[in-house]
Amino acid sequence: MAVLCILSGEGFTKEMYEELRKEVDWEHNQPKGEIFHAIGFDSSGGYHVVDIWESEQDFNNFITNTIKPLMDKMNALMPKGEIIPIYNANAFQSIDSYRIK
Questions:
Q1: What three-state secondary structure class fits 49?
Q2: Which pLDDT does position 8 carry in this prediction?
Q3: What is the pLDDT of residue 98?
Q4: pLDDT recorded at residue 30
Q5: C-alpha neighbours within 13 Å on the C-beta side of residue 7
Q6: How far apart are CA 26 and CA 47, in angstroms?
Q7: How far is CA 71 from CA 3, 6, 12, 22, in A?
Q8: If the chain, 101 residues long, is cut into consecutive pieces of 10 residues, what is the mean pLDDT of each piece?
Q9: What region, left, alpha or beta, does residue 25 occupy, with left being phi > 0 and alpha being psi -120 to 50 degrees?
Q10: CA of 73: how far to CAs of 31, 55, 88, in Å?
């Protein structure tokens, strides 16, 4: 069952995200089970991630085997979050204008 993963944390900058993104390279090497990923940074220094995954197991495997070791290497705290079963998801054509190139 597909899941919505909502994560939030502090102390993780845009520069750190870019470093992580380049290491993982999910744009060219899509993680098994990942359907959608978005991140935003708020004005108080927090960050918020919304992902959709094919299963909770795929999400947990990616976090455990890829993200956590990289976050540890960067001395960054892991975000807190929740995993919710998907009821409905839509992606519209305008989503392409938000991709980092």
A1: strand
A2: 98
A3: 76
A4: 93
A5: 20
A6: 19
A7: 23, 17, 9, 13
A8: 97 95 91 95 95 97 97 95 95 79 68
A9: left
A10: 20, 26, 36
Judge contact between 47 and 41, C-beta under 8 A: yes
80-85 and 46-53 beta bridge pairing: unpaired
- Identify the H or E element spanning 85: strand 80-85
SS (H, E, C) 58-77: HHHHHHHHHHHHHHHHCCCC
- Token pair for 65: 């085997």
Angstrom CA distances, 77 to 41, 67, 71, stand at 15, 11, 7
- Amino acid in the structure at residue 98: Y
